[in-house]
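So, could you explain this one?
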Amino acid sequence: MVWKKIQQGLRSRVSESIYQLWLEPLSFTSFDGRRLVLESPDKFISAYVERHFAAVVKSLLAEAGVKNGELVLREAVHRAAPKKSTSPYQKRLPLVPENNSRLRSLNPKYTFDQFMVGESNMMAESACESMTDGDSLAGICLYLHSATGLGKSHLTHAVAHKIWMESPLTRLHYLTAKQFAAEMVRGIHNRTMDDFKAKYMDNCDILLVEDIHTLTGKNKTQEELNDVLDSLIKSGKRVVFTSNAAPRDLKDIDSEFCSRMTSGIVTPMKAPDTSTRCAIIEKKAGLENLILDADSVDYLGTHIRGDVRRIESALRSLKMMTRMSRGGVNVEMVRSVVAQVVGYTESVLTAPMISELVSSQFKVSVEALQSKSRKRNVCVPRQVAMYLARKHTEESLVNIGRCFNRDHSTVMHSIKVVTDRVRRDTAVNAQVQMLSDKVTQM
């Protein structure tokens, strides 16, 4: 039988421990003369075998006289699966001690390929990717901080997903700072602190702790986590922390602990700009099979700022509306969602709004600002309007230019001209500052 020959060939090429761990759990399903179909206990073994042994199996098939042989792996269907957890990432691998890792429930959508990268989060995403690859450039300690809803959990979930997919034997512990504190308290109460310390110091390859800011004032927990961190860093293990505050803004955190946490890369995640928000909207709408035209995407991207969860909420609401109306998305739906469901009702400044303000202040029509006129009484207000639009909105240079029928290079030139005049001429500075104050009051 072909599979018997393949087994013998594999056993002769790898150590007995590797064979028992990865290859022995495979079982023969079928062979049609070219395709060898094997059943695997779970997706992790399938992924590992596919990556490390598929070429060897094809070579052994060729040695057995099978031309263009192919290996097909299928996961076993467990009819009596335990109800304790529905996450495939928490299955125990053969010969691996139980409870070797600690994970919170992972969101299956929070992966690197579903994370939208922009200028606001490029550094954080790159650092997390490097952490999963063991890139020495990233160091062994990473501290991410941002306001809520900007992607910290998405990235930490993505780290866990990727590590478990590519290196399922990695001893990864993923929990919140509050969970760590609660576990420590149980250890003290049950007099099992030695086990608690061994778990994180001796049986951990990568530690991910979210919401580190919740440890403010909890000196005992900080002390224990500091000892764990010190041990992991000295052992060359990897550590990722997240917080809603920059290290310098953390209060009641031990200075030695803070110093260790920030010994590697510290990177903020800022709110995405308008263009990135629009890209996020298009991406998430595609995942929801929701068709949005360019105007709808632009309106949502312009008005829903900050927390990305607002975008997700808006898209879910739009999806429900289209299902109820059995039609497509229209402008009224989009405006309704932004104003009522998302709860974002405050006025959002746009280039056209600023154009109208400047028009009234300089006694020149909006049409004149959009015209090709190069007269000073038109050109100066136009340049000031572009300068203020860039300063007070998140619109791109292209969008600002479009408002005045100009390209982005003209906008850049106008901004430079006004900036120079404000610096050199106190009268111009006062006038522009006055207009700027009025813009902020709109």
